[in-house]
Every structure is written in C-alpha cells, then in structure tokens.
Amino acid sequence: PPKEPAEEEAAAEGQEGGPAEEAAEEPGSWEETFKTHTDSKPNGPTSVGLDFSLPGFEHVYGIPEHADNLRLRTTEGGDPYRLYNLDVFQYELYNPMALYGSVPLLLAHSARSTLGLFWLNAAETWVDISSNTAGKTLFGKLLDYMQGGGETPQTDVRWMSESGIIDVFLLLGPTPAAVAGQYAALTGTQALPPLFALGYHQSRWNYNNEEDVAAVERGFEEHALPCDVLWLDIEHADGKRYFTWDPSKFPQPRAMLERLAAKKRKMVSIVDPHIKVDSAYRVHSELRARGFYVKTKDGGDYEGWCWPGSAAYPDFTNPEMRAWWASMFAYDQYEGSTENLFTWNDMNEPSVFSGPEVTMHKDAVHHGGWEHRDLHNLYGFYVQMATAEGQIQRSGGRQRPFVLSRAFFAGSQRYGAVWTGDNAAEWEHLKISIPMCLSFGLAGLSFCGADVGGFFKNPEPELLVRWYQAGAFQPFFRAHAHLDTVRREPWLFGEENAALIRAALRQRYALLPFWYTAFYRCHRHGLPVMRPLWMEYPEDTTTFAMDDQYLIGEWRPP
Ligand code: NOJ
C-alpha cells in the first residue's frame, strides 16, 4: 500500500526512515530489470518467509499448479516450486515452474496423521522442500531402523513471498478428510455445478461460424454421441471485442442459441479480461470513463498487448468494477446472449503479451493503492467471481452459473471450473492430467479437467480414444484444440474409433447421477471428488506415492 504520510515526511527530512530514507538518497537504486522491462519498486525490495519443520512426515502434496507428480519432490539443488500465475507457452512436464493458477496450500501425510499449511499470500511465492530421508532407499531406511532407529523422518518446508504479511493457517487434521473440511471452512467448498456442466463439452479454437456450429451439432446427433455443450473461442467476437459477435460469422447468435436450446444444449462463449482499446467499443469507453482500469505507477490506464492488439485491464479487485462487470451479463447488455449461454474466462493470469514474463508489471496500481505485486495471484480469481455473479444476477438469482477459468487462487472453487491450460497431444500429457487434477482436488478445486486430445499438435487416433476414455472419468470433461490443429470431432477417425469414443461418452452419461451426487457431497463437506488412494487408505503406506490411479465417489464421513 502507499506509504504512510509520516514515513514520507521522515524520508524527505532525511531522518532515520529505513528503506524510505535510502530511496530518497538514491532514486532508482531498487529498480530491477527483466529483459526490457523495469520494475520501479517504489516501496523498495521486500519479502516475507517462514520455515516449517514437519517431524514424522515424508510425504507432502498440494501447492498447485505444477505439471508434476502428485507427491511433491525435494527442491534441494534446484528451483523451489513457484506460485505466480502465468500464461506459459508449451509448458514442460515434471517441473516446479509456475503455471496459470496458484493455491498456497500444502498437505503433509503419514500413516499416523495428515496436516495442512495454508500460506495466505497472493504475491509471487516460492516453496522450498527438503527432507532428511530423500534419496534413501527403502532398504537404507530399514537398515537405519534395524540399527537402532535411525533418524525420525522429517520434511522441512520454506515459504517465501515477495510482499504482504505472514498469515498462515495450520490445519491439524488429523485425518485427510478433517484437513479437507478445515480448509473448506476457510476458503469455501466447490460450487455445485449445473447438471449439464458435468456432461461432455465440445470445444475448439474455433468453431468458425453459425453453419459450422450447426454441422458439428448435427454430427453429434447423427453419430449418436451425447454432448451437452458447444464452445466458441475468441474468433467468435467482433475483432476480439468480448461481449460482441462477429457480424459476418455469427449474424444471428440468438437464433443459433435457440436452436441449441431446442435440443436442451448449451453454449459457452469466451470473455477474456483484456479489453480492446477502441473508443468506438462501448465496453472500453465505459470502463475508461468510470476509471475502472488498472493504472500504471504514474496514474494512467495500464495498457498492454494481447489478442485484440492494444488492450487495457479492468481492475477486478475493485468491488464497484466487479459489480459493473457482472451487470454486463444481463441479457440486454450482452446482446445476443440467452439463458443457455455460459462463460469461459481465459488469459486471466492476467496474460499481457508485451509484459514481463507475459504478465502485468508488478508496479501497476490497483484499487486502494495496492501494487499488482501484492495481489497478482488473485486477479484471475476475481475475474471468475465477477463473471459468476453476473450469471447469477441475469437469472434473478434462480440459476447456478457455469464459468471456466484458467487462472485461480485459494477459494476459486466457489465460482466454477478450472482446467490445466495449453497441454499437448502427447501420451505424457495424458498421463500427467491425473496427478495435476488430483493436486487441484486436494487444494479444493474439484471441478477440473485437461483438454481432451491435447491442445497443441494432432493426436494419433489411439491417443484421442484413450484420452476420451480417461477424460470420461475426470470431473470437467471437455475436448479442445488449437487453431492450427486439424479437425478432430469424434466421427472423423473411422467407425471403429467413433464407436470407442461413443462408449466412453455413454459411460460418462450412465454415471452422470453418480457424478452429480459426488459433487453435491463435495459441495457440502469439502472432500475432493477425485481423490488419491491415500485419502481413503491413510494407513496404507504403499498408496502414498501413487498418482496413476484414484477414486471417485463414496467416502467415509470425517
Ligand atoms: C489460451 C487458452 O489456454 C486456449 O484454450 C484458447 O484456445 C486460446 N487461449 C485462445 O483463446
């Protein structure tokens, strides 16, 4: 936050003023550059951190989002796990690098008990993990034990955040279910999805026009493939001006949506939080006139480069701005929208193509004078919150919203679904979708999935089929693909493959009441829908590192 007036005065008068005094003496001495970007750090360099020792624990989990195994590894000699919401191009697997979302919740589990550490800080955060048993084989540990006990296993966890305060919650369990309940008491449980959202979703970047949408829908009908939702990516809007429709490709959106509604189908359109700077675009001119954009450190509207070209970023941390954004989903504001149209919030890390690490400058300024650095990991959370609120309001509070978000933070489960972003059509990506979703679930985000088929590249038919078979058993079940990939609707790979995909889709639909009940229980009690085996068999040490199998459904009450 801005400096207290007394601190400013002290610095100006050259009294002992700590960091403020040094800043006054050497302007710019705290600046940091990243490639061509400068972080002016007007409040000087800061960080907070704390070490935790966990005697008796060898297994730790959580702190999504990372493309890694469920069980966290030790980070000695390498980079710590990083939590900093970023739009990462073609992310690497088995890597502690930051991805699109962050939940600073770590779980530790042993045959005796489970506990949680919730580090409530939305600034850039790093987590270092070390262990006194890492690298020792089972035989080595046994030998230690036989020779008089050896050391008590212990894991040490170091949390470091760039700014903010130390606000940490110790969740004492002692069972996995109790920790989940304690975390849910702090951040809320998964919003109960509308039933259709647990069905199958068909997406690609892009379904090109109204005829294309009609043909894809017909394909599902003719091939007897169940599908609840068709998705429209950024090309549907008029020049990436969200809340509008391209007049030549989608001249009659309402009629298109009504045709889908006649078959009880839904549609999702993308609404990203970067707003084209164009004075003829009402969304932009209103945001500017109301002073609702994030500001630069010098007080102007912060602008960056994104899909529409030059774009500004609504300040979703401002409750008035969020109320305005929510009002944009009213049927008379979002023209052409109907009650079977739902929303996808992408690029909400936020993604800024021209910014440091493809995101916003840390010295940009939000409502109340907070620097972007202080709340970066919360930006996407607030985008999804405001959008979900808009959908609730447009229905007069009668219907549950559906909003998919790419960025997230602790508590995002209250506003909808999340997914693992831009994966690739590779077997390893299919494999890692399981630990990634398990880790989301442990951190409260039960409504999660991965792009079925893989986003980048073209899947060989067997990979696509296997992905449908796996995806049918993951909570959010959506096929999606990059603009440059070849079309891959399920009937394009021959009758045999179509039949296998049909069987997977039908398995999903046969179990739909089961999924809905599982989500209801999760909504009430906070236990993940998709659970690692050790949650159900907490004393069975052989399950502690397993992340290629999992359980859905019945659970024992805490
Ligand atoms: C990035 C998203 O991750 C991807 O799913 C989407 O298709 C593109 N943005 C275009 O909107």
From TrEMBL:
Region (Disordered): 1-47
GO biological process: carbohydrate metabolic process; N-glycan processing
Annotated Pfam families: Gal_mutarotas_2, Glyco_hydro_31_2nd, Glyco_hydro_31_3rd
Glycoside hydrolase family 31 TIM barrel domain span: 191-518
Keywords: Glycosidase, Hydrolase
MF term (GO), any: glucan 1,3-alpha-glucosidase activity
Name of the protein this chain belongs to: Glucosidase II alpha subunit
Native organism: Anas platyrhynchos platyrhynchos
Lineage: Eukaryota, Metazoa, Chordata, Craniata, Vertebrata
Protein's gene: GANAB
